[in-house]
Specification:
Shape: elongated
Largest sheet: 6 strands, mixed
Radius of gyration: 30 Å
Strand content: 15-25%
CATH architecture of the largest domain: 3-Layer(aba) Sandwich
Distance between the termini: 67 Å
CATH topology of the largest domain: Dna Topoisomerase Vi A Subunit, Chain: A, domain 2
Helix content: 40-55%
Length: 388
């Protein structure tokens, strides 16, 4: 049997909590009501007496308790059911529902406790407090226990200084290896929306939180000294990789060619082959360990040309900008311009709405000419389409 009593109360309380009466900003007295047909269209069906009877009994039960009052027609047909706002506490209690004001007060205390922990929390918590004041829903989660775990993780995640497994981070913060996995998607969304990250897919890796060990792949014109051993990668037919845990053992990187180039996509990295270039694929992201490796290359080879080769899309430009900011190296874009878009116009793809939003923010940047062309011609280009 369907619990129509609880459904009726919840629908009426939902209307009340979305109203100006809830925020006490109403100019006139408001009533909150519903029609039985809002519960089931079968209420109007003369052939379905069972549903008609069941809904009427639920309404009568609530009416007997003084939680609602009704308007009826002849024959016992209920026209409207009204919430009795004079006994709201009783309504919440009978529905076994936490009053929104009590929930909002608890959420506000949580946001106040965490909003000064870092810039992302300041931005996120501040906006949610404004949303509560405007009687809007909290973004991502308004379940207090889940929200507190999210805020706690956000307060600790910027303190991770070296590559850390997700399960280990979860144990460190919560004393439980599984909690992080439950809130991970919320964390990524909040960090990406309120932080400064080039790609949503690599937000956690940017902050040194990984599922599996990461590797840096490189090839071309370079010689490495690792733990007292010299590796001349010019003699290799392909690339070589070092795990993050080995990067600190790299003592010397000699770039024998003219250029150091970071490459965004793995397919392009494998296809790339220029004898005077030391090419690096960062596994899709550049966290602290990988950035330290790049900075070491720069410190030991300051006169080389540093280039970044990425997709000609919003993500590619943000990755390049982020790479510059985090390494303090003046990387120049490689084949990320209008000329390349025109040359490979047959391989471009149309922009999504999100592409346009992100590109609009780059109109006044150094990439402005390319960005304006992309917006005007509705195009972007993945670097895999390019002949190298």
């Amino acid at each position: 049997m369907k619990n129509y009593e609880k459904e009726i109360l919840n629908k009426l309380l939902d209307k009340y909590e979305r109203s100006k009466s809830f925020n006490e900003t109403n100019a006139v007295k408001q009533n909150f009501s519903l029609s039985p047909s809002d519960l089931s269209e079968k209420y109007k069906d003369d052939s379905d007496y069972y549903t008609f009877k069941e809904i009427n009994e639920a309404i009568q039960s609530l009416e007997n308790l003084g939680l609602v009052y009704c308007r009826r027609e002849k024959g016992g047909v209920v026209r409207r059911v009204f919430l009795n706002c004079a006994v709201l506490n009783n309504c919440y209690s009978y529905a076994k529902r936490t009053p929104k004001k009590a929930l909002n007060a608890r959420l506000t205390r949580l946001f106040e406790a965490y909003r000064d922990k870092n810039e992302v929390l300041s931005a996120y918590c501040g906006e949610q407090q404004r949303r509560i004041a405007e009687n809007k829903s909290v973004k991502y989660s308004d379940e207090p226990e889940t929200l507190e775990n999210i805020l706690k993780a956000l307060s600790k995640i910027f303190d991770v200084s070296s590559e850390t497994f997700q399960r280990d981070f979860s144990v460190r913060v919560f004393g439980d290896s599984k909690i992080f996995e439950k809130i991970k998607n919320y964390l990524v969304s909040i960090l990406y929306e309120y932080g400064d990250f080039p790609d949503k897919e690599t937000v956690l890796e940017d902050l040194n939180i990984v599922r599996n060990p990461g590797y840096v792949y490189f090839k071309g014109a370079g010689v490495l000294n690792v733990a007292g051993q010299s590796i001349d990668i010019r003699t290799l037919c392909g690339d070589i990789a070092l795990s993050s845990s080995l990067l600190s053992s790299v003592e010397q990187i000699e770039v024998c060619g003219k250029t150091v180039m970071t490459i965004e996509n793995l397919t392009s990295f494998h296809a790339f082959s220029k004898p005077d270039v030391f090419a690096i694929y960062l596994g899709g992201y550049h966290n602290a360990d990988r950035r330290q490796f790049i900075k070491k290359i720069y410190e030991q080879n300051p006169c080389k040309q540093f280039l970044h080769y990425g997709d000609i899309d919003a993500g590619g430009f943000y990755i390049l900008r982020h790479l510059r900011q985090k390494t303090a190296i003046a990387f120049e874009p490689f084949r990320m311009d209008v000329k390349t878009l025109q040359e490979y116009s047959d391989y471009t793809k149309p922009l999504t709405d999100n592409d346009r939003k992100r590109l609009e923010k780059l109109r006044d940047s150094e990439f402005g000419d390319t960005v304006s062309y992309m917006l005007l011609h509705n195009c972007k280009l993945e670097q895999e389409a390019l002949d190298i």
